[in-house]
Amino acid sequence: HRLAYWEWGDATNPRVLVCVQGLTRQGRDFDILAQRLCGEYRVVCPDVVGRGESDWTGPATYTLPQEASDVVALLDHLNIEQAAIIGSSRGGLLGMLMATEHRHRLLGVCLNDVGPVLERAGLLRIGTYIGIQPTVNTLEEIADRMPLAMPGFHHVPELRWSEEAIRHFIQYSDRVGLTYDPALRIAFDAAMATPVPDAWPLFDACAGLPLALIRGANSDVLARTTAEAMMQRRPDLLYAE
User: Fold this and answer.
1) 203 Cβ neighbours under 8 A, 6+ residues apart
2) Which residues pair with 141 in a beta bridge?
3) Which is nearest to 76 in space by CA: 10, 9, 8, 16?
4) How far apart, in whole angstroms, are the C-alpha atoms of residue 209 and residue 221?
5) 92, 112 Cβ separation under 8 angstroms
6) Nearest-CA neighbor of 44 among 107, 104, 114, 102?
7) What is the C-alpha separation between 110 and 192, in angstroms, rounded?
8) Distance in Å from the first CA to the final CA of the chain
9) pLDDT tens digits, residue range 69-112?
10) Distance between CA atoms of 31 and 46, rounded to whole angstroms?
């Protein structure tokens, strides 16, 4: 299948960051971060399969092992021997899985609002909107509604919501659509219907790698108690809330 990616900075720079997005998001999520870091690093931001401009290949393929394999294939395609991973939400789970299965390709992992324990309340909130087509016709209407639809974010300028709307949705001539395959909901529901696996071994697989964690203060996905337990296991963990 075809994998799209966005690249920033000097392609000969050996200091590489691969930024992997959350469940329903795309590589363009990292535009602002990449602009900030591309003077120092080569920054690569893929659209994982089923999202953005990558092929939409069906719910059976929307799995972390497939997505991790795709990232490794992308590194091979770009002749990148090793890279650090910045993983946001599901992208952080992918980073930890790569530490388990492809450790020799990693320079370090930064987890954004994700850990080995995910709060069910936050996952259920995600389940209320995943795969649901918008009922409005313009991105402007989306931006106006986003502050109510995404509680927990305060003092966000109006322009910033407009920038987010562009990354969450696509404007067609007569409607607004999703930037990911709506069938992703099938994969999500199937995962939610199974017992939650113990992900601490994935976190522990990062032992010896530089590791950082960013937690959103209002997060309903990553509890502060989980972040504290992560710091206990990794006293060298770089942490910011």
Assistant:
1) 96, 115, 116, 230, 233
2) none
3) 16
4) 24
5) yes
6) 107
7) 25
8) 37
9) 999 999 999 999 999 999 999 999 999 999 999 999 999 999 99
10) 12
The pTM assigned to this predicted structure is 0.94
Q: Scan for tokens 């987890």, then name that residue.
A: 111
Confidence of residue 151 (pLDDT cuts 50, 70, 90): confident
pLDDT tens-place string over residues 169-223: 999 999 999 999 999 999 999 999 998 889 999 999 999 999 999 999 999 999 9
**Position 137 confidence tier, pLDDT thresholds 50, 70, 90:** very high
Which residues neighbour 36 within 8 Å (Cβ) at sequence distance 6 or greater? none
Helices (H), the chain: 31-37, 64-77, 90-101, 120-127, 139-149, 158-168, 184-192, 200-204, 224-233
Do 202 and 230 contact (CB within 8 A), yes or no?
Answer: no
Q: How many residues does the chain have?
A: 241
Contacts of 232 (CB under 8 A, 6+ apart): none
φ/ψ region of 146 (left if φ > 0, alpha if ψ in -120 to 50, else beta) reads alpha
Residue 220 DSSP code: S
Question: Do residues 54 and 2 lie in contact, with contact meaning Cβ atoms separated by under 8 Å?
Answer: yes
Residue 42: helix, strand or coil by DSSP? strand
Which residues, other chains included, contact 124 with Cβ-Cβ below 8 Å and sequence gap of 6+? Answer: none
Residue 104, phi then psi, degrees to nearest 5: -65, -10
